[in-house]
Amino acid sequence: RYGPMTTPTHPLALAPVTAPPATVDGFVKEFLRELNTGQGVALSRSTVNDQYLALARTVRHYLMARWLETTRHQRETKEKAVGYLSAEYLLGRQLGNALLATDLGEIAEKAMAACGLDLVTLRAQEVEPGLGNGGLGRLAACFVDSLATMSIPCIGYGIRYEYGIFKQTFVDGRQVEQPDTWLSLGEPWGFPHPEAAVQVDFGGYTETYRDGDVERTRWVPSWNVLGLPYNYMVPGYQNGRVNTLRLWSAQATKAFDLAIFNAGDYAEAVRAQTFAENITKVLYPEDSTPQGKELRLQQQYFFVACSIRDFINQVMEPGFDLHDLPERVTFQLNDTHPVIAVPELMRILVDEHKWEWDEAWDVTKRCFAYTCHTLLPEALEVWPVDLLGRLLPRHLEIIYQINDAFLAEVRERFPNDELRARSMSIVTDYPDRSVRMAYLATVAGMKVNGVAALHSQLLADKVLPAFSEYWPEKFTNVTNGVTPRRFLRLANPWLSQLITDALGVGWVTDLDRLAELEPYAQDEDFRKAFREAKQTNKERLYALLRARDGIELSGDHLLDVMVKRLHEYKRQTLKILHIVSLYEQIIHERVDPTTITPRTVVFGAKAAPGYRLAKEIIYLINKVGETVNTDPRVAGRLQIAFPANYNVTLAEKLIPAADLSEQISLAGMEASGTGNMKFALNGALTIGTDDGANVEIRQLVGDDNFFGFGMTEPEVAALGASGYQPGSYYESNPQLKAAIDLIASGAFSGGDRNAFEPVVSNLLYHDRFMALADFASYVDAQAAVEAAYADQEAWSKMAILNVARTGFFSSDRSMRDYLSRIWRA
Ligand code: C3B
């Protein structure tokens, strides 16, 4: 039941919700009220955490009227919305973004100062919600930011994991994972709505029954849980718009534990409670290589079942006709994780609403669109049929029926081509009978998109060729983007100020305007100011690393940064081989150290806890770092930093400081990359392969302003087909051999020759991602970097051109592309 019980009489109860006055006094008043009556403490006795929580809630007040108004407006206009279904949202800290969106930064700073507090310190108290692994989760966060900023109706649906991505620590150079207790000090941004909880069923069996003269199927589940929604504000940038992110948390249902309780087994009832709540306990830390764990499937079904139910029952007006659903929403499937939503909607329409199959299928397939984020075969989710049958027996039947109908269509269009039909089957028999979720998404979705031009091409040609031939018009591309609010305006205030001084303020929501910076590359004063901004960012970074990690960096070095998940295909090993090679040449006096450009290399990377080789690579990087950093022969020339626990918060400090952006994946492997865009926008030059969105960055900034190297995707394919032999590169390239030999010699492991055996033998005998084949070309490109950096004026020109020419990579542009190619198509 919504609304008051009788008609309100007090004028305040009738008035619309308003924001507090946007003045220092108004802010102080709200803040103290929150501290005193919300937190229950006096300023004089409050901790930094109390102060942070009160401040966050204060800023929330300023957004509240807009949020309520957005929701009301959406209900009234019935505009078509995007239902973004994503198992991950890697949001980053909220406070700074909320202050920016409300334009309250200055007022808050003064208000805090007037209370004897420091805004920067309070902002640092926030623990970022790490509800994602890497690129895919961060992309979702950028997209919801852009949609709010562009006033496009969207509800982001996802999971409120109690523990987000693990906290990485290093012990003797090895990664040790610690739980991410992001909720432990209180979390001011989420609004729980227990009264709007949704029941989600699992297990059991299906049975047929007669309904008049039709035979129907029903699902008799054996257990269930409740999904509790937590609403989060997604403020648009200074536009009065606040969209919603709705994250679900699992709770035991009353019926569930009561039944056992009545039977007298209290302890068992409590155990059942824990079991249910396990579903949203922890984010699976595998990025791009999911483990087929039952709990993961439970998570996936749990959140999409909640979300679809919520959209139909809560977001749509009462009495809404489900035939109109495609006119009111597109559910965008963020990779295969939410694809079980397809049979779920079919089940609702066919079983609950008793629609004909064809009628339900017609509506369902106009409600979904699918984005693929990878090409790695091991990352395309496949669920064993017995697991699905045990957990979701009705959904499995529906998937079979979708598949049968689809294959019948294929056989009709291509008679006597059974091989083709088999190759397109959603259900496969090898190696085990299982369901290919990407195929299901492709069959059901009205559109299928990749995330960069090259990736979309390869997706259509290599991963789903039979489907792209069958439905050429279904396949499209939307190149990823990043939000300029968080990654330029917030993260890089000095460069932002320079841009604003040159162009005015509009660029923050119209990033193509960065093109107007082009002539400033020729302006000596601008270049100087640009370099000063970069230097300020470096100093800010060094101060942070000193305080956060005890890492001492010094000197006026080229800052060379490689931050991303640790994965063989991303080739952190190629980078470390180059560093080892530089080091080897110096200590063996093959080069004069005074002739090389002083360089500071920063790594940031988490490895999936079960990914052995990735963890060995982390160990190698740390050990090389220890040795290099303490060797007087390279002092002042080369230093390596590997701060633990790379996350969004650290990225915001690292990226603006970088001179060189490492984007060195094997061509054809990185679907897009988004870090590459953030670096270029912040004026770093890229050293990169022709992979993912690097291709588009290079095209836009021009070959002269990009350090390209390595094989192209067709060359990679040809080398693979001819039988790649990494050993031959080792044997024929003395520089490469010397670097690998130095690693194997124990020089970085106190003489222990076995310390890096897993990495070394993998490189020499497998090297699935062909690091050795690209080594020589990479070394040449790094030499070109050094030569270019020696001329600071020329380097600054190139860096400014990178900023000026990469406005395309705003996620606002991505949203426009989704709108025109998918959501309004
Ligand atoms: C990533 C890809 O690895 C990146 O190339 C891409 O830029 C982003 O997605 C966003 O599209 N990705 C990921 O982070 N997790 C996956 N499971 C699959 C892809």
Q: Strands, helices and their partners?
A:
Layout: H1 11-14, H2 24-38, H3 48-77, E1 81-85, E2 89-90, H4 95-102, H5 105-114, H6 119-124, E3 130-131, H7 135-149, E4 154-159, E5 167-171, E6 174-178, E7 191-192, E8 198-202, E9 205-211, E10 214-220, E11 223-235, E12 242-252, H8 254-262, H9 266-277, H10 294-315, H11 325-328, E13 329-334, H12 341-352, H13 357-364, E14 368-371, E15 382-384, H14 385-391, H15 393-413, H16 418-424, E16 427-428, E17 434-436, H17 437-444, E18 448-450, H18 453-463, H19 465-470, E19 475-477, H20 484-490, H21 493-503, H22 524-549, E20 558-563, H23 572-587, E21 599-604, H24 612-629, E22 638-641, H25 648-657, E23 660-663, H26 675-681, E24 685-688, H27 694-701, E25 707-708, H28 713-722, H29 726-732, H30 734-744, H31 757-765, H32 771-790, H33 792-804, H34 811-823
Parallel strand pairs: 1-4, 1-13, 4-12, 13-14, 14-18, 18-19, 20-21, 20-23, 21-22, 23-24, 24-25
Antiparallel strand pairs: 2-3, 5-6, 7-11, 8-11, 9-10, 11-12, 15-17, 16-17
The protein binds 4-amino-1-beta-D-glucopyranosylpyrimidin-2(1H)-one.
Residues 133-136, 139, 287-288, 335, 373-374, 379, 451, 480, 670-674, 692 line the site of 4-amino-1-beta-D-glucopyranosylpyrimidin-2(1H)-one.
